[in-house]
Amino acid sequence: MNEAQFIAALRTLPLHPGAEGLRDDTATLAVGGETLVLTHDAIAEGVHYRPGTDPFDIAWKLVAVNLSDLAAKGAEPLGVLIGAVLVEKAERFVEGLRAILTEYDVPLLGGDTISVSPATFGCTAIGRATTAQVPRRDGARPGDALWVTGPLGAAMLGFESGHGTAYLHPRPRLNDGRALAPHVSAMMDVSDGLLLDARRMAEASGCTADITLARVPIAAGAEPLRAVTWGDDYELLFAAPPGFVPPVPAARIGEMAGPGKAPLLLDGQVPEIALGYQHR
Amino acid sequence: MNEAQFIAALRTLPLHPGAEGLRDDTATLAVGGETLVLTHDAIAEGVHYRPGTDPFDIAWKLVAVNLSDLAAKGAEPLGVLIGAVLVEKAERFVEGLRAILTEYDVPLLGGDTISVSPATFGCTAIGRATTAQVPRRDGARPGDALWVTGPLGAAMLGFESGHGTAYLHPRPRLNDGRALAPHVSAMMDVSDGLLLDARRMAEASGCTADITLARVPIAAGAEPLRAVTWGDDYELLFAAPPGFVPPVPAARIGEMAGPGKAPLLLDGQVPEIALGYQHR
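^ Those are the sequences you sent over. The predicted structure of the assembly is below.
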């Protein structure tokens, strides 16, 4: 059973209506007139980070990737639950938690601590929706413009240099997400590579994402084709009606068209390269 | 840094008021006039279950231990998020999830799937409080009677026989917990051993739990002193005012007294045995 088969099997379980058929990064839960946005991501040694990584950086990344999912929904974080592992230098894990929780003003709600090696950490982030319609990845429409909030490739450069904060300490775009959420047709964070995530949005929306490489903002020093197929930048990718002027810095990188020969075109062609980082 | 030091360090982080100082098994979150009850527990191969365990049983136990924490709060489950691992025979994991989610009428909200070995699974369970005051472990008062909802030792016998459903498929006492929640001074599930968990309740409450071994219901065939120091039974332990008659089957096993020479007495003596299963 591979991952796609496993997720297909999970979709046959009794699903909450807010699970959205397990086709999005978050779930919604209506409670007493509010809508909560829920997400859970795990990161494992040797899979999502290298053995020997400073536990400070593990903690930051663990929380950041979950807050980034809330950002793409325009949600205000209410708290996190942490599935922690008692690793060596665990005090650095606590300090990393302190740094990111303080930076984004998010309180710790609870969690669990276990001892296991190699370590797998989990985080559940809980947010409050700030719009009646929570943005989804499947809402893009033909004619929408396609935008990204910032340059791609900074995480890649940081990873390759071995000391880049863009890779070690990704910054969830919570303020951008909240400013954009009332206006966008679709939104998601770029975690696995711009091209791959754009194709996912187009596929979910029944559209074709037509991206012009020269329009994509690229981090200084990064090779463009590698930058758009590398992940971990956590910029927000969004589709919005053609006349929309974003209230935050963003670059218009292409358009959504109707369904065609492939869900993603790069400079008018079906790209014949790996679009991003899958199955990690 | 050991586990106690780690948790002490976590308590210095920005905590949500509903985190209760990380001193309980769950957190509460007030949302739109409702109170949610949140819990996260992880289970790891080689720590919480033996390598080679049927993934059906892993899935059941993963969800059951989290629902048991909701049961002790009298909470009605609203859904779960699963941090899954793509193990061999992953279809058995899905079937185990199906079995317990169907049994307790709990929908899947979402989660994450990773590939890592040895596997660590996470679950976040979200429930709705059914009482204005959510029972805590620290609410017991001198004079309260101490009760348990059912026999101890069944999980131990099941573990040792290698085929006992009491160990493989623990049953969270959700209905009992809801019936008891409006009336109890303190409540928790017995996950790590009756004596250990009773001492925890007494310590948190500033009391002495005085338990009479002959009053403790013991599973047929189990040796009493071993049964009360073995975990995984997931019965509910609760303290209630002396005149209280429980609306569900329960055995009165002792009393809460004021603080004394030790937080736990067994037949009037400070027990000199290991009280339960710690640090797993």
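The two ends of chain A are 16 Å apart (CA to CA). Residues 145-266 of chain A form a domain with the Phosphoribosyl-aminoimidazole Synthetase; Chain A, domain 2 fold (CATH 3.90.650.10).

Shout if you want it in another format.
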